[in-house]
Amino acid sequence: MTVREFLALTQRELLKWIRAPIGIVSSLMLPFFYLLLFGQALNLGKLVPASEAGAVYLGAPDYFSYFSVGMVGFIMLFTGLFAGANVIFARRFGTLKKETAAPIPREIIFTSRVSAGVIRGVIFGTVVFAIAIAFAHVPGLNGLTLTGTSGVLGAAEILVAMACVTALFSSIFIALGFLTEQIESYFALVNLVNLPVLFSSNALFPTSLFPAWLKGIAAWNPVSLGVDVMRENAFGSQAYYPYSPAEYLGILLALTIVFVAGMAVVTRWSLRPR
Hints:
single chain, mainly alpha, 11 helices, about 75% helix
């Protein structure tokens, strides 16, 4: 019974997403323009000697390749953000009241939204990879150059990393959505989370440019952990990292389980009878 409820609610969340194609396209426009404008304009390659490029970009052949994999981590973070915003809209439209009135475990209401967010995040992340690779075939544009040879195992590790990062941040933002009733309050809280997390990660800039105190934070940032798994597999650059992709993935998976379980408790508390 519980599995059926979980699948039904997950399916409903995905159907709402599929039936709003404008939202899907607009969500993809954000990483597209980052890759097209920010990634093309910020050419750190001109500031880094060719002999040091491998160490600075942790095995990536150029800055755009380094940046475009980081953009996958970026889209995972923002997919979680919008998963939480959907809770606010569900409350406003009255659908959340129907869910809480039904004999459904509160954890199912929470985990179904997280699972739908994970599916969206993995799809978006795969599309971002495809866009960045396609840029390499457009004259005048830098593109993502894959130099790794990890094969099927590497692709699986990348997918699991995308799923973990999305699940972790979806759980945080969904819990915030259940805790707050006003959309303004939700986005105020979200900005206290997403911007520090993004800019303290290695998604956009090499950590070799960071001050020493920020390097330690970046190393344990969940976005950094997921992106490290992707970059090691995409560029075959294990020599530049202290841990293997499997070890990074283990740490990330443990963090994901802790956060999802913790946020499930927070959600249950926020949905308690009053």
